[in-house]
Specification:
The chain is α/β, with parallel strands linked by helices. It is built from 12 helices and 11 strands. The chain folds into 2 domains: about 5-185, 3-Layer(aba) Sandwich (Aldehyde Dehydrogenase, Chain A, domain 1); about 190-315, Aldehyde Dehydrogenase, Chain A, domain 2 (3-Layer(aba) Sandwich). The protein has a 6-stranded mixed β-sheet with strand order 8-9-10-7-6-11. Strands 3-2-1-4-5 form a 5-stranded parallel β-sheet, sandwiched between helices. Helix 8 (about 200-210) links the parallel strand 6 and strand 7. Helix 1 packs antiparallel against helix 3 (about 55-70). Keywords: NADP. InterPro entries: Ald_DH/histidinol_DH (IPR016161), CoA_reduct_LuxC (IPR008670). This is Acyl-CoA reductase. It comes from Winogradskyella litoriviva.
């Protein structure tokens, strides 16, 4: 396949996903192979929901909407134009995917196929229904993909390089098992926000989306705030209130109750509003329904701290503080060139 053939196939996939952005899915008869796949994908969404209580229809369709918006002619061509794909010799790339949010491994899957490699996917049991179905759709609309996509639940064998995402603990095993292969090994990361106290209510409401989307389970979710001394959390509590229905969802409520009980029994100081707890803590990874914070007295010192601990941070939400900051409300809307851990996946794939 030529590069443009691969691009065109993913553009068609993006158009297919556009039908699944709202609670009432609307079939578009102009979509290629839609009669074969529309009802089937509705069923896969239903199964994904039943298999994983964190995968609500709202969370799944939010992810599908993001990928539909990303997989356009303009976006894919803008992303790929900086690379030279002409000398790529197809190899087999193994991908070990996480399962914390719907289709969390899709960018790696997309990158491997755009580079004309073969992909060998080992999925998390928490997210195993959506991607294989979309892979079948790709094979039908672009037969050149047939034989290039394989899913396995067995031990990974016969591959040339690996992209593996997991916890800090599993990363140590990955680094050992794949020490003789070119690899990208991803560990735990969390996202942070730097507040000054001058934020508008609109910015803080947008920050609430960065905190609560996907129940805070993604590495791009804000789990920690850096705030100035004597910061008043009242405006933040008011801004996040739009997310208060989240406490009606049992898995979130159970985590809220459990973590609150732990904090109370341990006599930790915290603030809470009935669906979110805010606790001073130097850690980056906060439990579900909890947001950590840390005070700073000097922005320059804070920049140095963040630079030293950058291997723990995925995204930084701020305004006018850092060059690579992300606007409020945008952590869960990455561009195709926003690579996890700031490691250029396509560059890696083209050089192996």
């Amino acid at each position: 396949m030529e590069l443009q053939q691969r691009i065109n196939a993913f553009i068609k996939l993006g158009a297919f996903l556009q039908q699944f952005q709202n609670n009432e899915f609307v079939k578009n008869d102009t979509i290629e192979a839609n009669d074969l796949f529309f009802d089937g994908f509705k069923h896969q969404i239903k199964i994904a929901k039943e298999n994983n209580g964190w995968f609500t229809e709202k969370n799944i369709t939010f992810a599908l909407k993001n990928w539909s918006n990303a997989l356009t002619y303009k976006n894919i061509n803008e992303w790929t134009k900086k690379y030279n794909f002409n000398n790529t010799k197809p190899k087999t790339i193994a991908i070990i995917m996480a399962g914390n949010i719907p289709l969390v491994g899709f960018h790696d899957f997309l990158s491997v196929l755009i580079c004309n490699h073969n992909v060998l996917v080992k999925q998390s049991s928490n997210d195993k229904h959506l991607l294989p179905f979309l892979a079948k759709y790709l094979e039908v609309i672009e037969p050149g993909f047939k034989g290039k996509i394989k899913f396995t639940e067995e031990k990974l064998e016969k591959f040339d390089a690996v992209i593996a995402t997991g916890s800090d603990n599993t990363a140590r095993y990955f680094e050992y098992y794949f020490k003789n292969k070119p690899s990208i090994i991803r560990k735990n990361r969390n996202s942070v926000a730097i507040l000054t106290g001058a934020e508008t209510s609109k910015q803080l409401e947008a920050l609430a989306d960065d905190i609560f989307r996907y129940y805070g389970l993604g590495c791009r979710n804000v789990s920690k705030l850096f705030v100035p001394k004597d910061y008043d959390f009242q405006a933040l509590f008011k801004a996040v209130y739009k997310w208060h229905p989240i406490i009606e969802e049992s898995k979130y409520a159970n985590n809220y109750d459990y973590n609150k009980a732990v904090y109370l029994m341990s006599e930790f100081d915290m603030l809470e509003n009935g669906f979110l707890m805010i606790k001073e803590d130097k850690s980056y990874a906060s439990p579900i329904a909890t947001l950590f914070y840390e005070h700073y007295t000097n922005i320059e010192n804070l920049k140095q701290k963040i630079d030293l601990e950058s291997d723990k941070i995925q995204c930084i939400v701020a305004e006018g503080i850092l060059e690579d900051e992300i606007p409020f409300g945008k952590t869960q809307n990455p561009e195709l060139y926003d690579y996890a851990d700031n490691v250029d996946t396509v560059k890696f794939l083209l050089e192996i």
